[in-house]
Write a structure and sequence with these properties.
Elements (H helix, E strand, L loop, with lengths): L1 E4 L3 H9 L13 E5 L17 H14 L14 H10 L6 E5 L2 H9 L7 E6 L1 H8 L16 H5 L12 E4 L6 H5 L2 E6 L15 E6 L4 H10 L4 H4 L3 H23 L1
Parallel strand pairs: 1-7
Antiparallel strand pairs: 2-4, 3-6, 4-7, 5-6
Helix pairs in contact: 4-8
Length: about 260
């Protein structure tokens, strides 16, 4: 698997626009994921921290039972196993989904947003090739989450199923929530706890870019100049208020400094 290190926003721009083949991937379609610690595996939340099958089934059933009174829009129907998991994922419930994005800028934000003492990671995934290695297809494709071919993997989150579900598959994201839309989301759904970056043949569909910890602040300024900030990626009042507070606190500190 290819691992590159970038130190400057210009290197990032050149890599994703001009020199993408340095990643060892084709450019038919690449999905991106940013993680603020490079050492973290590509593992969905429900498989972390020794969480078990009972945990997964309990949080899923609890969310479905209690979400309708709290969600202003119409919730998915009880038969839509995939749509429920996508909604849970975007409200930070641990699920068997792993977030990806079609935008390298969105992924870069998450790679540099935290943990300035550790290198960040920007992962690049070829979803068509992942599916080619994971499921038998007449031709490589990214599947609709409602596809019958992968329903057992989604339904296994709610109750044990007899069919084989130990696959990791790239699926489209239905735009049922504004966060999914603005983050240009896509997903991998994981029927097993093995990290994606430890699968056999991973070098055929996965590459990694590292960002040194001392360079994260520079990348954040670069993203800010392009309008990529928390309140634009999480378009709700909570994050709008947080962004405004941070911005005004910084301005206040600067004004006080200049007044001395």
């Amino acid at each position: 698997m290819v691992i590159l290190v970038i130190h400057d926003p210009h290197d990032f721009t050149k890599l994703v626009v001009e020199d993408f083949r340095a990643l060892g991937l084709d450019f038919k379609e690449i999905w991106w994921r940013g993680q603020s610690k490079s050492k973290w595996d590509l593992t969905p939340g429900v498989y972390r921290c020794s969480r078990d099958r009972s945990y997964e089934q309990n949080v899923c059933s609890g969310f479905i039972a209690k979400a309708p009174a709290r969600y202003a829009k119409n919730c998915p129907s009880l038969a839509e196993a995939a749509s429920w998991l996508i909604l849970m994922q975007h409200y930070r419930l641990p699920t068997r989904l792993l977030d990806w994005t079609e935008s390298p800028l969105v992924a870069l934000y998450f790679a540099v947003s935290e943990h300035d003492c550790a290198p960040g990671a920007l992962w690049a995934l070829e979803p068509y090739k992942l599916n080619k290695h994971q499921i038998p297809c007449v031709r490589p494709q990214v599947l609709n989450p409602q596809s019958e071919r992968i329903q057992p993997i989604f339904k296994a989150a709610y109750a044990p199923v007899a069919k084989d579900t130990d696959k990791i598959v790239a699926v489209m994201a239905s735009h049922e929530d504004l966060r999914v839309l603005v983050q240009q989301s896509a997903f991998t759904v994981h029927g097993l706890g093995t990290p994606l970056n430890k699968l056999r043949n991973r070098e055929k569909f996965l590459a990694k870019i590292e960002i040194p910890p001392e360079r994260k602040a520079k990348f954040r300024k670069y993203l800010e100049s392009l309008g990529i900030r928390r309140s634009s990626l999480f378009p709700d009042l909570e994050y709008l208020a947080e962004d405004l507070k941070i911005s005004e606190d910084l301005d206040l500190t600067e004004r006080k400094k200049n007044a001395r």
